[in-house]
């Protein structure tokens, strides 16, 4: 096979990859992924190849909108995530306390489904100060109610900060390992809104 053939084969591979649907782009796949964060045996079935492909699709989504808009505000992210969780058939409450936790603590979103609970912490921008705030909150939650899953919700514009190797991503990965912290990336424009779930296990696979 000559250089020209190698080049054409490479172009064909890229073309075929672009034509393939992104992982978890279907409603049924997304719903299964969300439910699976409570089941270790289910999470272990997702291969490194699928996870890498998923991360690439998230970074592509970031590239598509980079420099086209400002960061989404807290309330907007809160609404998008609430819509996502309700669409996945979870019961959602805004700015509320957890029944098994000190009532003075209020969380951006608390979602329940049967005996499972998700607490959502919203941070529009990820920086050192917001990471320290997240660490404090998640430590308190997991000490009191270890079975609860905590998800950090943020703008898809922050995906490189979390998915690419850097000092802040190291903090996130550490919390994913210790406290099962997962991520929700969101996007919104005039035509649609979108939410991507990254379970804690995907961050340190």
What's the total count of β strands? 6
Largest sheet: 6 strands, mixed
Enter the CATH topology name: Trna Endonuclease, Chain: A, domain 1
Given the structure, what is the number of helices? 9
List the helices and strands and how they pair.
Layout (H helix, E strand, L loop, with lengths): L2 H17 L7 H10 L3 H4 L4 H18 L8 H14 L3 E6 L10 E7 L2 E7 L5 H17 L4 E7 L3 H5 L3 H13 L2 E7 L4 E6 L1 H4 L2
Parallel strand pairs: 3-4, 4-5
Antiparallel strand pairs: 1-2, 2-3, 5-6
Summarize the structure.
The chain is an alpha/beta fold and 205 residues long. It has 9 helices and 6 strands; from the N terminus they run αααααβββαβααββα.
Could you explain how this protein is built, in words?
The chain is α/β, with parallel strands linked by helices. It has a single domain, classed as 3-Layer(aba) Sandwich (Trna Endonuclease, Chain: A, domain 1). Helices cover 50% and strands 20% of the residues. The protein contains 9 helices and 6 strands. It has helices spanning 3-19, 27-36, 40-43, 48-65, 74-87, 128-144, 159-163, 167-179, 200-203, and strands spanning 91-96, 107-113, 116-122, 149-155, 182-188, 193-198. It has a 6-stranded mixed beta sheet with strand order 1-2-3-4-5-6, with helices on both faces. Strand 2 and strand 3 (116-122) form a beta hairpin.
């Amino acid at each position: 096979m000559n250089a020209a053939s190698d080049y054409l084969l490479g172009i064909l591979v890229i073309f075929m990859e672009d034509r393939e649907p992104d992982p978890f782009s279907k409603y049924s796949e997304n719903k299964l992924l969300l439910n699976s964060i409570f089941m270790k045996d289910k999470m272990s079935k997702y291969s490194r190849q699928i996870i890498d492909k998923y991360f690439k699709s998230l970074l592509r989504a970031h590239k598509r909108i980079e420099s086209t808009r400002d960061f989404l505000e807290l309330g907007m992210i809160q609404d998008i995530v609430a819509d996502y969780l309700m669409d996945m058939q979870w019961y959602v409450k805004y700015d509320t306390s957890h029944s098994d936790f000190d009532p003075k603590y209020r969380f951006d979103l608390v979602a329940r489904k049967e005996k499972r609970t998700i607490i959502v912490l919203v941070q529009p921008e990820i920086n050192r100060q917001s990471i320290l705030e997240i660490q404090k909150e998640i430590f308190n939650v997991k000490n009191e109610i270890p079975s609860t899953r905590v998800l950090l919700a943020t703008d898809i514009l922050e995906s490189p900060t979390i998915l690419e190797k850097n000092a802040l991503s190291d903090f996130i990965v550490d919390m994913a390992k210790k406290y099962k912290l997962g991520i929700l990336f969101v996007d919104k424009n005039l035509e649609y809104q979108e939410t991507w779930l990254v379970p804690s296990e995907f961050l340190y696979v």
